[in-house]
Design a protein that fits this description.
Chain A has 843 residues and is of the alpha+beta class. Helices cover 56% and strands 16% of the residues of chain A. The radius of gyration of chain A is 33 Å and the shape is elongated. The longest helix of chain B has 18 residues. Classes of the chains: A alpha+beta (843), B alpha/beta (233).
C-alpha cells in the first residue's frame, strides 16, 4: 500500500509540486525569519565581543529609566580617579557615548545641509580617550584621531558613502545649532565598517562631553586588570569602590548584556514576522486540505478498486495520510531552502531602508531546521486527516460503477458541527471583546476565536456559495454570454469545493480588512481630537515625527518677530517601579493647547487613567526619578481627563509638569513639539530652523495630517506581510482550477465540438475563478469588519474607534478580482489548448 | 422538403490517409478513402473495431487532421482551416451526437438544447424549438436536469441539441452504444425520422447492425479502406 501511495504521488508529481507551494511559502517565512534574526544577533555579538576584547571590566551608571529620550544615565567623571586607585587596576579610561536616541545623538550634516544617513538609523557618537589605546574599540583606516574642539573622525561606511576624507569639513549638530568640524580621520569599529547603518562621529572626551551636555560625566569607564588578576576579582574590588550608584560588569558580562539587549530587540522582529509565517501556514493548510479532498474525490474508482482487491479502510486512510506526509516533507525541505534565500532578500530590504546590517555569514541554527521541518510536516498532516477519513467511506462496489461519487462531507452532512464551531468562535470573540479582560488575555481569546471562526465559516460557506455565485456571477453572465453563464453554473457545481477554495482567500482578505479598518479607526479618531486640542498656528517637530528635538531649536524660533513659542519638553521617568512619560509645559501654553489646568513649578497634572491606576488625586504626592537619577517630588495639582486622542500614540505624556521643573531635573532637555502662535508662515519658521537639519515646521493643518497618516507606514508593512497569505491562497485557487479543468476534460471537449471557441473556454475558466475569488471577498470583507468591530471594542480604552475604510474595501475587491484573473491564467490556457478529439475520448 | 434525388454531395472526401505512429509500429487507420455524402440521407459507417470507422468520422468532422487528402463540407475546405475556422464550421454546419450523451449536468434539458446557439451568440427560433421538442418527444421533461432523465431521454436531449442550429450535417458517434435495445430502437427511429422529416443529412458511426438497418447507405470499412458501399432504396 505504501508503494501504491508514493507511486501515485510520483505520477501526479506536477500537481503535487503545485500543492506543496502552498506550504512552502509559510515554511520559508518561518525559516527566513529565524535565519535573519539569528544572523543579526550573531553580527552584533561579534561586534561587541571584539569591541570589549581588551577590557576586563566596565563601570557604568545604573539604568534608571528604560528608553529615555535623553539617553542612559551617566556617571560622574570623579569616579575615574576612584577606579584608578582601586586594587588590581592596571589602567582605566572614561568613555562618552551618545546612545543615538532623542537628544542623546550627534548628527553629521552633509554639504547639502541635510543629515547624513537614513532618518530612522541612529546617529551615534563617541568621546574616546585615544591615549588609552587598549580600550579604544576603533581602529584608524585613514588620517589621525581628532584633537580638541572642531575636530572629528567618522566611520568608514559613512566616509565611503559620502566620499569624505581627512581634511574635509563636515557639519555636526547635537544639542545646539549646526557647527562646522574638520575630519581628521576615518575609523572602523573593531573590524566592521558600519554599525547597522548608524553614522558615527568620534571626538576626544572633552569635546564629546560639551556637545552632548555631559560635562564632568562619563557613560562608561573601561578598566584593565593588573596582570594575573582574574576579571571577576577585579570587578568585585571595583564594586566596593564605586558604591551603589554604578554597575560593574566584567568584559564578558558586558558583552552578554549587549547580546541580551540585541536579543530583546530582534525577538520583537522575530515574533512579529513569525506571526505572518503562521498565518501563511494556516492558509496553506486550507489549500492542502482542499486539494487532497479533490484528489480523493477524483480517485474514487482507483481507491475503490484497491478496496475491492482487499485493502482495508485503514490501509486506504493511511495511504492518503502518507501522501499528505510526503507532500509536507517535500514542502518543508523546499521551504527551508527558500527561507534561507528569503533571509538574504529581507536583509537586502533592510539595506534599502537604510539599515545596513553588519556583514556576517547567514546563521542556520539546528533549531531553525527542526522548527521549519516540523511545522511544515505537522501542518500538512493535520490538513490531510479529514480527506483521509473521507477516503475510507468509499465502498468497493464504486469500482464497478460509472461516475461513482463520495458521500457528502461531515460538514455538509452535519451542519451542526459548523454551527457549533461558529457559536464557540462567537463566544470566544465576545468574551475577548466585552468581558473586560486584560489586553493580553483578551487578544488571546480574540485570536483563538478568529481561528475557529475562519474554519467554521469555511465549513458553512458551501450553503451560501450558490446564492452568492448567483449574485456575483450576474455581471459575468451579462458580459460573457454563454461562457459567463457556464462559469457561474460551474462555480456552484461543487459548493463545498468552491467554499474552501474561496475560504483560503477569505482569511487573507479578512485580515487585511481588519488591519485597514483598525487603521481607519485610529486615523479618524485622531484627526478630530487633534484639531480640537491644538490651536497653534505652526507646529515644530522632528522630521521623523518621533524624536525629541534640541531645546535650542525652540529658542531659535522664539526670536522671530511677533512669534510666541510654547515648547513641550518630553522624556521618560520612573515612578511606581515603572516607566512613565513626562512632559514639561511652557508657561502660557494654554493659549495654544486646550488643558483643564496648567501645572505650576513643583506641581504635576496627571492623566486620569494613570491617576486611577496609582490612586492619585489632587493633593497627592508623586515621586518620579529622572533618567539622570534625580528624585523629583511633585504635588498633584489636577487630574487631566484623558482626551479621545488615542493612547497608542498619545499627544501628551501621562505626567505633565512645568518647564522650569522639567529643566531642573531632566538631563539634555528636548522638545516633542514647539507650538507657535504668531504671524510667521511655516516657511518662514522653517528658514529660522536652518541650523537644525532634522527639525521641521508645519502649519497646524499639515501637522495634523502628517500625524494622522503616520500609521500608514505600519499599515503598508502589514499589507505586504499579509500579501504572503493571499499569495498562498492564490496557489490554492490555481490548484483547484487545474484539478477542475482536468476533471471536466470531456465536457470541455463537447463544448468545443458544439462550437465553443478557445477564447470562450478561457473566459469560462477565468470567470469561474473570478467568481470564486469574489466569494472569498464577499465572505472575507464582512468577516474582517466584524473582527475589527470586536477588536475595536476590546481596545476601546486604547482609543481605537471603529470606522469603515470604504476606499480600502473597494481596493481589496479589485485585488480579489485580479487574484481570480491571475489564478486562472495557466488553467484557462490549459483548458483552451485541449485537443477536442482527445478531450472527447477522455475517460 | 429536399429532393430525394441527390444533386451534389454536402460532404466530400478525397484520398484520405491517416497514420498513427511511425516506422514498424505505424498504424494505417485510413488508406486513401474517397467519399461523397449525399444530402438528406442517413449514411452509416460500419466495421470491426480498428477498421478506421471512428477515424473517418473524426476526420470528416474536422476533429482530426488527415495526413493526406482533403475534406470539404458545404463547399468549405475543412482540412485547411485553423482553430478559429473550425469553430465557425462547427457552429454553422456540424451537429454532434455522442455515445455518452455529454450533457452538462448543471443545465436543464432545455438549456442544454439551447447551449450551442448561446455559445454562438445566436437565438433559436421558438417555433423551430417547439417543433424540435415535439419531434424528440421530450415535452414535459424540458425543465429537468440530466440526472433526472433516463439514458434514452438524455440522448433525445442530445439529438435535439445537435439539431437546434439546423446543421448541414449531423455526425452521430455510436449513438446507441450506451443504451439498452428498446431505447436504442427509439433513438434510431428518431434519427431516421429527422432525416425523413427535416431532410437532415446524417453520418452515423456504429457497430450495431440494428442501427445500420435504418440507414440509406451503409459503408463497411476494413483496415482503413472502404470494403463495401451499399445504397438502399
Amino acid at each position: 500500500m505504501r508503494r501504491v501511495a508514493l507511486q501515485g504521488l510520483w505520477l501526479r508529481r506536477g500537481r503535487a509540486l503545485l500543492t506543496t507551494l502552498a506550504v512552502v511559502l509559510g515554511v520559508a517565512m518561518v525559516c527566513g525569519t529565524y535565519v535573519l534574526t539569528d544572523t543579526i544577533s550573531k553580527a552584533f555579538d561579534t561586534i561587541f565581543t571584539t569591541g570589549n576584547a581588551k577590557t576586563s571590566a566596565v563601570v557604568s551608571a545604573r539604568d534608571v529609566v528604560d528608553q529615555s529620550t535623553s539617553g542612559k544615565a551617566t556617571i560622574p567623571a570623579s569616579l575615574l580617579t576612584k577606579v584608578r586607585s582601586a586594587p588590581d587596576v592596571a589602567e582605566a579610561s572614561g568613555l562618552v557615548q551618545a546612545s543615538g536616541q532623542g537628544t542623546d545623538q550627534i548628527r553629521l550634516i552633509g554639504p547639502d545641509g541635510k543629515t547624513i544617513g537614513n532618518q530612522n538609523a541612529p546617529k551615534l557618537a563617541f568621546g574616546v580617550d585615544f591615549g588609552a589605546t587598549r580600550f579604544n574599540p576603533f581602529t584608524l583606516s585613514a588620517g589621525d584621531w581628532p584633537k580638541g574642539d572642531g575636530e572629528l573622525a567618522i566611520d568608514r561606511s559613512t566616509a565611503d558613502k559620502q566620499h569624505l576624507k581627512p581634511g574635509d569639513k563636515l557639519g555636526i549638530s547635537a544639542q545646539g545649532a549646526k557647527r562646522t568640524f574638520t575630519i581628521t580621520g576615518v575609523a572602523r569599529y573593531g573590524k566592521v565598517n558600519s554599525l547597522g547603518g548608524a553614522t558615527i562621529g568620534l571626538f576626544d572626551v572633552p569635546t564629546a562631553q560639551k556637545l552632548l551636555g555631559k560635562q564632568g560625566r562619563f557613560d562608561t569607564i573601561s578598566v584593565a586588570a593588573a596582570s594575573g588578576v582574574p576579571d571577576k576579582q577585579l570587578a568585585a574590588g571595583l564594586r566596593s569602590v564605586v558604591g551603589k550608584d554604578a554597575t560593574v560588569r566584567t568584559g564578558a558580562e558586558q558583552a552578554a548584556q549587549h547580546s541580551k539587549d540585541i536579543e530583546e530587540a530582534t525577538s520583537f522582529i522575530r515574533y512579529f514576522l513569525l506571526a505572518f509565517g503562521f498565518i501563511a501556514l494556516g492558509v496553506g493548510a486550507f489549500v492542502i486540505y482542499n486539494t487532497l479532498t479533490i484528489t480523493v474525490a477524483q480517485r474514487v474508482r482507483e481507491l475503490a478498486t484497491l478496496r475491492a482487491l482487499g485493502a482495508s479502510a485503514k490501509q486506504v486512510r493511511r495511504s492518503v495520510l502518507l501522501e499528505g506526509l510526503a507532500l509536507g516533507a517535500l514542502a518543508s525541505v523546499l521551504g527551508l531552502v527558500l527561507g534561507y534565500f528569503l533571509a538574504k532578500g529581507l536583509s537586502a530590504a533592510f539595506v534599502a531602508l537604510g539599515i545596513d546590517l553588519p556583514k556576517t555569514d547567514q546563521v542556520l541554527k539546528p533549531r531553525t531546521i527542526v522548527v521549519s521541518l516540523a511545522l511544515g510536516v505537522v501542518v500538512t498532516a493535520l490538513a490531510s486527516i479529514a480527506p483521509a477519513r473521507r477516503a475510507t467511506s468509499i465502498s468497493p462496489v464504486a469500482a464497478m460503477q460509472e461516475g461513482a461519487k463520495l458521500p457528502p462531507k461531515l460538514g455538509a452532512r452535519r451542519p451542526a458541527v459548523g454551527l457549533g464551531m461558529l457559536v464557540l468562535a462567537l463566544v470566544l470573540l465576545g468574551v475577548g471583546a466585552f468581558a473586560g479582560l486584560s489586553t493580553a488575555v483578551a487578544l488571546g481569546f480574540l485570536g483563538g476565536g478568529c481561528l475557529i471562526l475562519f474554519a467554521a465559516v469555511a465549513m458553512l460557506a458551501n450553503r451560501v456559495v450558490t446564492p452568492l455565485a448567483r449574485v456575483l456571477g450576474a455581471p459575468a453572465k451579462r458580459a460573457g454570454g454563454a461562457a459567463g453563464r457556464l462559469a457561474r453554473e460551474n462555480a456552484t457545481r461543487n459548493p463545498a469545493r468552491t467554499a474552501s477554495t474561496a475560504g483560503a482567500l477569505m482569511i487573507g482578505l479578512a485580515l487585511v480588512t481588519l488591519v485597514a479598518t483598525l487603521g481607519q479607526g485610529l486615523r479618524s479618531s485622531d484627526r478630530k481630537s487633534l484639531e480640537d486640542l491644538v490651536s497653534a498656528d505652526t507646529v515644530v517637530t522632528a522630521k521623523n515625527g518621533f524624536d525629541t528635538i534640541p531645546s535650542a531649536a525652540g529658542r531659535a524660533v522664539a526670536k522671530l518677530p511677533g512669534e510666541h513659542a510654547y515648547p513641550v519638553r518630553h522624556d521618560r521617568a520612573k515612578a511606581f517601579g515603572d516607566t512613565v512619560s513626562v512632559d514639561g509645559l511652557a508657561p502660557g501654553i494654554e493659549s495654544v493647547l486646550r488643558l483643564s489646568s496648567v501645572p505650576r513649578p513643583g506641581q504635576a497634572l496627571v492623566e486620569s487613567d494613570y491617576a486611577d491606576k496609582h490612586h492619585l488625586h489632587t493633593g497627592s504626592e508623586l515621586a518620579v526619578v529622572t533618567p539622570s537619577g534625580k528624585r523629583l517630588r511633585l504635588r498633584v495639582a489636577g487630574v487631566q481627563k484623558r482626551t479621545s486622542v488615542q493612547k497608542i500614540d498619545p499627544l501628551l505624556a501621562k505626567v505633565l509638569v512645568s518647564q522650569a521643573t522639567f529643566d531642573g531635573a531632566f538631563p539634555r532637555p528636548g522638545d516633542a513639539y514647539v507650538f507657535l502662535s504668531g504671524p510667521a508662515s511655516a516657511k518662514t519658521v522653517q528658514k529660522a530652523l536652518a541650523p537644525f537639519p532634522d527639525v521641521e515646521a508645519r502649519s497646524r493643518a499639515a501637522w495634523v495630517t502628517k500625524r494622522v497618516n503616520a500609521i500608514n507606514t505600519l499599515l503598508n508593512l502589514l499589507y505586504v506581510l499579509l500579501a504572503l497569505s493571499v499569495i498562498v491562497s492564490l496557489f490554492g485557487m490555481v490548484n483547484t482550477l487545474v484539478l477542475t479543468v482536468f476533471e471536466r476534460t470531456r465536457e470541455i471537449g463537447m463544448l468545443r465540438a458544439v462550437g465553443m471557441s478557445r477564447r470562450q473556454v478561457r473566459r469560462m475558466v477565468r470567470q469561474e475563478s473570478i467568481i470564486t475569488a469574489l466569494i472569498g471577498a464577499a465572505l472575507g470583507l464582512p468577516l474582517g469588519l466584524l473582527l475589527a468591530r470586536l477588536l475595536s471594542s476590546a481596545l476601546a480604552d486604547q482609543g481605537v474607534a471603529f470606522a469603515v475604510p470604504g476606499g480600502a474595501l473597494v481596493i481589496f475587491t479589485i485585488v480579489a478580482i485580479l487574484a481570480g484573473v491571475l489564478a486562472a491564467i495557466a488553467p484557462a490556457r490549459r483548458a483552451a489548448r485541449l485537443d477536442v478529439l482527445k478531450a472527447l475520448q477522455y475517460e | 422538403m429536399t429532393s430525394p434525388v441527390a444533386t451534389s454531395a454536402v460532404v466530400t472526401a478525397r484520398g484520405l490517409t491517416r497514420v498513427y505512429g511511425e516506422g514498424a509500429t505505424a498504424v494505417h487507420a485510413l488508406r486513401g478513402v474517397d467519399l461523397d455524402v449525399q444530402p438528406a440521407r442517413l449514411t452509416a459507417v460500419m466495421g470491426p473495431s480498428g477498421s478506421g470507422k471512428s477515424t473517418l468520422m473524426h476526420v470528416l468532422a474536422g476533429l482530426d487532421k488527415p495526413d493526406g487528402g482533403t475534406v470539404s463540407i458545404a463547399g468549405v475546405e475543412v482540412t485547411g482551416l485553423d482553430d478559429k475556422g473550425l469553430t465557425e464550421l462547427r457552429r454553422e454546419h456540424i451537429g454532434f451526437v455522442f455515445q455518452f450523451f455529454n450533457l452538462l449536468p448543471m443545465l436543464t434539458a432545455r438549456e442544454n438544447i439551447l447551449l450551442p446557439a448561446e455559445i454562438a451568440g445566436e437565438t433559436v427560433d421558438p417555433a423551430w424549438l417547439d417543433e424540435l421538442v415535439e419531434k424528440v418527444g421530450l415535452g414535459d421533461r424540458l425543465g429537468h436536469r440530466p440526472s433526472e432523465l433516463s439514458g434514452g431521454q438524455q440522448q433525445r436531449v442530445a439529438v435535439a441539441r445537435s439539431l437546434a442550429s439546423r446543421p448541414t450535417v449531423l455526425f452521430a458517434d455510436e449513438p446507441t452504444g450506451n443504451l439498452d435495445s428498446t431505447t436504442s430502437a427509439e433513438i434510431l427511429e428518431l434519427l431516421r425520422s429527422t432525416v425523413d422529416g427535416f431532410g437532415q443529412t446524417t453520418v452515423m458511426v456504429t457497430h450495431d447492425p440494428e442501427a445500420a438497418a435504418i440507414a440509406d447507405r451503409v459503408l463497411n470499412l476494413d483496415d482503413g479502406a472502404i470494403a463495401s458501399d451499399e445504397v438502399r432504396s
